[in-house]
Amino acid sequence: NMKYTLVVLALLAPLTAAASLGEQKPEANAFVKSLRELHRGPPVEPMKTRAKVEERWITQKLDNSDDSNNATWQDRIYINNKYFVDGSPIFIYLGGEWAIDPSGITSGLWKDIAKQHNGSLLYTEHRFFGQSIPITPLSTENLAKYQSVEQALADVINVIATLKQEDKYKDSKVVASGCSYSATMATWIRKLYPEIIRGSWASSAPLLAKVNFKDYMKVVGESYATLGGQYCYDLIDNATSYYENLFEIGNGTQAVKELNLCSNFNVNSEQDRWQIFSTIANIFAGIAQYQKPEKYDIPTYCSILREFSDDDSVALSKFINWKINEHSGACLSTTFKGAVGYYEWSKENYQDSDLPWIFQTCSEFGWFQSSGSRSQPFGSTFPATLYEDTCEGVFGAKYDSAGIHANIRATNDDFGGLNVNATNIYFVQGALDGWSKVGAGVAQGATIIPYASHCPDTGSISASDSAELVASKKKLIKLVAQWLED
């Protein structure tokens, strides 16, 4: 057996060497994965035809707010000029906290409107996402200096200025659109640069920065009750209460076993407990966020959930494990240290990193989706403090609770929260979108689409659209024509 042992040791040796050098990639734990799912780019229709989309790299200033800093970097954009006639308008689709993809400007409503106006379609990548990395490492110091919505908006304005040096674009008017955080950008770019941007379409734009965003999970719960049925809401509610109770009565090891948590989970750590319950809620939120009522996404997931077991707590555990690890049988890793460690590691290893967005939540927006509302089925074990502690753990003492609250106040002072105070912006909200609670409402002139969720109106007008959705899309088509005429 000696020979066999040596072979095994020889195989293990490279692993231990790599680990000791700190090259071993820590796993993105279940919490990290569940957050990533909530901030993925909006789903796009698959390309029906291969449109010729051109990839270009635009030279940007590292610091748009400092004239004396001459450092530059390369920002990726995509251009679809299939319908473009020289001098016609530029239709920008703003990239948010995701990697941009050519299919974002080859299908959908914005493409349809651009085509009507012989427009050029442009998709911009936000600094620090995808392949547009202005500086490494992603240290707190670098992110604090260079990652902000103001810097990103100035980048977009520079893209426009760069293109307008070409004859074919010099007379082009510009309109902007976005979904989710990039709809926030679409709103604020019109507010800050009204002489450059004729108008903006903001689909599901969060506008009011907020630390304890407790209404979000309330709306997620409502969407399960409304679309999945009361049985589905109750199942989640019962199962969550069951596991919360196990921890409360000191029976955490039982909960760990039944939820299939990895052995690194510390039953005595409040932060670990917060994290598992936050992860469960995030998984259900990820499904609800991009659900399409006509596709029956939520009812389908609710039946899968129920089919796992007649016992609510068993059903929930199997469902969560399936959503995170498919059928791999791996345990669920959710520890506070694991999440902080993963983000720490990301500072030096930044491919597809979530870190720059996590940073913006700590430095500008908050939007910590907590269990603070009593009217939701995910229990009461993930306060906003979980996210505040994560900010401080990853970015240091300046990003403690007091620091975050000050940052959020500054954002609302700068941009006005729900009082946008700008013209030519079309706001759309899904009535069952948690983000709508920090977005424009009826009072701000928003169009609300019943039963719809996040960014519900980005696709072309189709037979499966509700009457309200069709009306909203037609209204946008009219408005864009007006913005371009004026």
TrEMBL record:
Keywords: Glycoprotein, Hydrolase, Protease, Signal. The keyword Disulfide bond does not apply. GO terms for biological process: proteolysis. The keyword DNA-binding does not apply. GO terms for molecular function: serine-type exopeptidase activity. It comes from the Eukaryota. Transmembrane segments: none annotated. This is IP12434p. It comes from Drosophila melanogaster. The gene is CG3739.
